[in-house]
Amino acid sequence: MIAIETKQLKKSYGASPIVKGIDFIVKQEEIFGFLGRNGAGKSTLINMLTGIIQPSSGTYSLLGVKGPNDQVKKRIGVMPDYSILYSSLTAMEHLKYLSALSGKSAGKEWCMEVLTFVGLEAHARKKVAKFSFGMKKKLGIALAIIHDPELVFLDEPTSGLDAESAIQIQKLIRRLRKRGKTIFMTSHNLAEVEKLCTRIAIMKEGKIVKSGTMDELRAFYRSTIKVRIKHSPVPASEQMKLHQWLESAGTDLEVNDPYVTITVKDENRIAEIIRAFQQCRADVLRVEVEEPSLEDIFLDE
Amino acid sequence: MYVIGKREFMSLFKGVKSLIVIAILLVTSYYSAKFADFLLSGIELSAKEAENIHTVGLLGLLLLLGQLFIAGLSHDTINRETHERTMRFLVTRTSRTSIVLGKFLGIWLFWFICLIISFLIISMFAQKIDIFIFSQTMSLVTYQISLTVLLSVLIPKPGFTMFLSIVVGLSFPILGLWVVFTSNVWVSWTKYITPFYYLEREDFSFLVIFIVAGIMLFFANFIFKRREC
């Protein structure tokens, strides 16, 4: 089943278009990552999907229900982009108030279970004003899932957190998926998205420029493969010939004995490079192929 | 709606401002009713005047300072949450109409309880509860709450509604009473949208005040539905 579907979703402020016609689909039980630089339109998109702002044009549906629809709000959970909480309320009071608002009043036991899930069970009665930034983020996730939604929106869930807290939240996100939730998250952290998300979309200037699974994105970028070869000494008489051949075989050639690094456009080129070394009477000792990381893909876009 | 209303209602009982307003209402009710007994024994009044004398103090207080009290306590009922972005929690969980109506309901219940207690105090002296005067008072309070909610939706900055609540609270009764009695045709028509015109008449025309309050609430909801949080 499709959890999110958008068709030509647009948002403009006056003459300035922020989101310029977005089409994408998120399937159920996916972790869908949305990447983009600041101002790319990620938060605007999440705000449109969650009913915080109205789209200028286009349509979207959440869990098969055309939006905006107040009934579907009970089936989605939202963690806003930064810790916006009621400083005078405790964690437990937050959970009780916001679950009741979602139409599923949570009892004390369920609230404690959710707080235990996010690791805040010891702070249930503490006022949020005394919470650290990381604790607020965790409570944000607890609030997003307190009414047991099918679809969870997480806007930059680990931004501003230290490494340990970020890892804890990443673990939480994985556990949410194991519980059958669909997760739509935005992030600046490329490594995090690469590790967590089953599918990724890259947004630039209000448009999706690339989307797919990590393997699909890699396959698209595999035309530029970076190869690092460790070789035995090349006889002096062969060096010039080999260098000339390598220059014609690829780009970004770096020679730093006993290593040669080269970027090729085709996987088949790697075998040709190995043969070229052998023909020049040098042994290839090690071949390292660098897969394009999400960072490479992102920066390229 | 009820969840938001309950929270708004409970939060109004917390804080020094609310306690001061409740104390003023109760003290005014007690002493005006007590003083009314003294007036009844010392001054010759018509039957109608004598009948309503116990509630004069409370009604006078609400006519002159009711808007100031209500706006003072609830001027930021909507815009505070929008400003602090906690409104995002609400709009992603329930309908915007529920939010506006819930806020209104919470404030209305707070004033309903306060006025019930005030009228009970008065009834100890008057030996009766005047439902008609109570209904008139509630219509006035309903109007003032709707106006406060509308202003809180219209103006995004809580600091500005705080200032405006003082200005409106002080000028509202003065201008309201002026338009009721003025013969200036350019402004006299505005008396139909103020509560004073209907309260001055001793019939059931005060029910129109509830309609005007409903219209203001409708506009507040209409604007809030289009507002970004």
From TrEMBL, chain A:
| Superkingdom assignment | Bacteria
Recorded hits in SMART domains, A to Z, give: AAA
Which SUPFAM superfamilies does the UniProt entry name for this protein? P-loop containing nucleoside triphosphate hydrolases
Q: Which InterPro entries match?
A: AAA+_ATPase, ABC_transporter-like_ATP-bd, ABC_transporter-like_CS, ABC_transporter_ATP-binding, DrrA1/2-like_C, P-loop_NTPase
| ABC transporter domain sequence ranges | 4-230
Q: Which CDD domains match?
A: ABC_DR_subfamily_A
* Keywords linked to the UniProt accession: ATP-binding, Nucleotide-binding, Transport
Please name the Pfam families in this protein's record: ABC_tran, DrrA1-3_C
Q: Which GO terms describe its molecular function?
A: ATP binding; ATP hydrolysis activity
Q: Which family does it belong to?
A: Belongs to the ABC transporter superfamily.
Query: What name does this protein carry?
Result: ABC transporter domain-containing protein
Automatic annotation (TrEMBL), chain B:
Query: Which of UniProt's keywords are assigned here?
Result: Membrane, Transmembrane, Transmembrane helix
Annotated membrane-spanning segments are 12-33, 53-78, 99-125, 131-155, 162-181, 204-224
| Single GO term (MF) | ABC-type transporter activity
Q: What is this protein called?
A: ABC transporter permease subunit
Q: Name one GO cellular component term.
A: plasma membrane
